[in-house]
Amino acid sequence: MTKDRNGNFFEDFRVGMKLRHATPRTLTEGDRSLYIGLTGSRAVLATAETNARRLGLHARPLEDLLVFNTAFGKTVPDVSLNAVANLGYADVRFLAPVFPGDTLAVESDVIGLKENTSRKSGIVYVRSTARNQHGADVLTWIRWVMVHKRDAQAPCAEAVVPPLEAVVSPDRLPRHDFGAAVSNVTALTGVMDLWDDYEVGERIDHPGAMAVNDSDHSIATRLYQNTAKAHFDARAASAGGGRRLVYGGHVMSLCKALAYDGLENALTMLAINAGSHVNPTFAGDTLVCATTVIDKFDLGDNAVGGLRLRMIGAKNVDAASIVFPDARAGRPVHAPDVVLDLDYTIAIPKKSATWSNR
Amino acid sequence: MTKDRNGNFFEDFRVGMKLRHATPRTLTEGDRSLYIGLTGSRAVLATAETNARRLGLHARPLEDLLVFNTAFGKTVPDVSLNAVANLGYADVRFLAPVFPGDTLAVESDVIGLKENTSRKSGIVYVRSTARNQHGADVLTWIRWVMVHKRDAQAPCAEAVVPPLEAVVSPDRLPRHDFGAAVSNVTALTGVMDLWDDYEVGERIDHPGAMAVNDSDHSIATRLYQNTAKAHFDARAASAGGGRRLVYGGHVMSLCKALAYDGLENALTMLAINAGSHVNPTFAGDTLVCATTVIDKFDLGDNAVGGLRLRMIGAKNVDAASIVFPDARAGRPVHAPDVVLDLDYTIAIPKKSATWSNR
Amino acid sequence: MTKDRNGNFFEDFRVGMKLRHATPRTLTEGDRSLYIGLTGSRAVLATAETNARRLGLHARPLEDLLVFNTAFGKTVPDVSLNAVANLGYADVRFLAPVFPGDTLAVESDVIGLKENTSRKSGIVYVRSTARNQHGADVLTWIRWVMVHKRDAQAPCAEAVVPPLEAVVSPDRLPRHDFGAAVSNVTALTGVMDLWDDYEVGERIDHPGAMAVNDSDHSIATRLYQNTAKAHFDARAASAGGGRRLVYGGHVMSLCKALAYDGLENALTMLAINAGSHVNPTFAGDTLVCATTVIDKFDLGDNAVGGLRLRMIGAKNVDAASIVFPDARAGRPVHAPDVVLDLDYTIAIPKKSATWSNR
């Protein structure tokens, strides 16, 4: 009759297991306001009801990473309560917009397992999917995470490592039904740079800088109902000679908000191709970031095109000093002040949309 | 024509006085979001609109302690602006759910007064009640608080100490009209433990731990429009060699949120039988808590039963190290790291609900 | 094809330029809740839906300074990203209430320019106006700000200094359509002091005190989507031997919330006549404030009258120690602990409203 809730350890997982995460969560305008207060998000579609309507939507969707972080938080008690480290993301696809009042229910499938040679831990690969109250998938992602074993001697099944694509190919990118009205975006942001104006290889040093406070990141992580102890237990952190770790998803949100300047006309994230939390962030650190354009995708759509971007976030340095190491040949080597290396794809209006709209 | 607002001192109170607290307050989804961000609440009925409907409610109510703390905050300017200490609670009953958009108006009756032998202060007993915009009582509680005298020489009326029951007896517990649909809760939380699965004497060590930050508790206390200076005046606290005190209601909310793990299927608080803030909490402290089951009440209801719980919150220790001193023989003696001793009763679905639902 | 966003420097401005600020912003109940959490606002019209209705409004408007700070934040990227200092405000008029769901779009006209003799910077005067989604002006203000030059040698146009009135005269004050129902306010606040009860020269020492935390002011400033680096870049501040500056608009909001006690029946701000941020505020400071009544305006309205108030905010002192230096003869000389000197006009019910309502 024990009510201990100690989460799953590595040997508790089996390939093919389905985890239904507790409990569904309704997101509202209250969550949006707090998200803006915590990150400074200025995303054009999300900032004003009138913006969404001028761009052809019936209502303003919630910020992409508010949805991602909320859905991610739901998976923590079952997947990563006993995690050593969150190792990476792949094939994250933003399938449909989420609006205030929508409820997300999240499930995960265990798609891979690989015990470490130390036998003290192993890597768990999960495919997670968030559905709205109408049963439509709105977000899906793979992540892999190193999880402690309860008992190093416990036997484990044979290793299964799922195939992981380095990039969500254009044919697998979600299609949102943007129309010609998206060309109005330049009148809202006052910035003329559209899909056509970005060049592969181009670099943008975002001008902002954002100090992280203990209370900010705690509020953000609780908002996502993410219960990972590393973010909340100051006593345990201090006993280990350290400090509470800032949740990596909050670092992503802060960097994404800083990246508004230079990418003002971005409409939505379509995918996260790959992402890693390179070094920890702590309260007191000041974050900056820079972006390079990796690729451009013509989505076969008159209104919008895709930009594949690589955003590197760093702490306590100038954005101009950030180096982009080669990511094609295995795990890139980063400076110790780099905290985030995120490869993602956005939808942004094309000039052709402007033309056809005349 | 002075506009000084110095609150009531002990000699200003009379038994029978009615205090209408300023001003009514409307609670919204914005308050809920902030409450989740400040506490990490995962209460099943409050977390998703779809949860509330699957459990047979027409909408999702606000968290019990958001309602309690908001109503409590309203009483501060009239009752406890000149408080030495908040001594205790009794007969707190959650009479009806509060939904976003509801407005709370709060009144108090002075039901007891007892000057201290020092003549510098006295104990004020008040019965406070919050009503919604339809005039229905939603929350009622007794608290007693030690209040400074303006003038030690001022004469005071004869002592009146109201009778205080140690527990809200089952016949006086509020009846919420839960139906058979509450048996769906296990599908939402993924946890099978219902009323029938808890045993008197059973102990639950909740696995979470929560560091308190200065900004968190300040935002929470302002959200409740609670103006007690001990929480906000860093200069006065520092001059006294101390730090700003964390509002006790925020400590209750944090411990209640930690207690989700092990009590996942709880639907609502029915009563707080007794409560005391044993030692102060300050920013930087990490809170943990443990619960014992004191009693089980069959409420004469097929759908839900009552569990009387004792939750002890402590700072900067392991939950497993918390000791539950005997509370039946007067004021229990606690370790210096204990911050909260709360005796409360919840409603939780019965397995019989599951049976009758087949 | 650069995407550098470095804002305007002094030599980029021309008198007559129109700046359309990005992007419009919808305010909601979520923003209100966060505003209450960040400031402790208890403004009677904004605190409860039922209050607004009893006072004759169809819905409860958002807090005046939430609207001001949101609109102000919109102007930062174009006007003051390269500011040395925000020098002052004049002719701020709150033209119409803003309700949850309303969207603000903000434009500015450059109305004056004056290069400094050092040639390294100059003063930019702008008139900014916020409009709602129906095209109605809701807020207008003048501010002047010292802005760096990109290049000290760059030629500048001839100086133009716009006329600045010291006070918004009664005939130019906005008329809100308050009716006789506003006399109900005393039943809501429990305070009987109305327009008739305030005397020119009267002083009110507000009893509260509010410590400022780094996270609070960061969340507030991000909520307003204000991107000024001085508030967010801890690394740059630290390199300069300093700390992050608290946004002056947050200081105004905190002092305004403290000033509730003594001005409980105030309905709305009509104007800010003049305002200056006298000294910087940093996290850790505790704010207090005092108010004097400068003037009383009979607005030719049975229901409400105008009170012209001067509120001085100070840090780490008693409100009673605040000195009100003469402001009529040029720039007043303040003690180093003074942070805010704000001259503003409110609408407050008249007793005559009570009479006519009988």
TrEMBL record, chains A, B, C:
Pfam families: MC_hydratase. It comes from the Bacteria. Signal peptide: none annotated. InterPro entries: HotDog_dom_sf, MC_hydratase, MCH/BMMD, Thiol_ester_hydratase_Rv0216. One of its GO terms (molecular function) is lyase activity. PANTHER family: BETA-METHYLMALYL-COA DEHYDRATASE, MONOAMINE OXIDASE-RELATED. This is Hydratase. It comes from Caballeronia concitans.
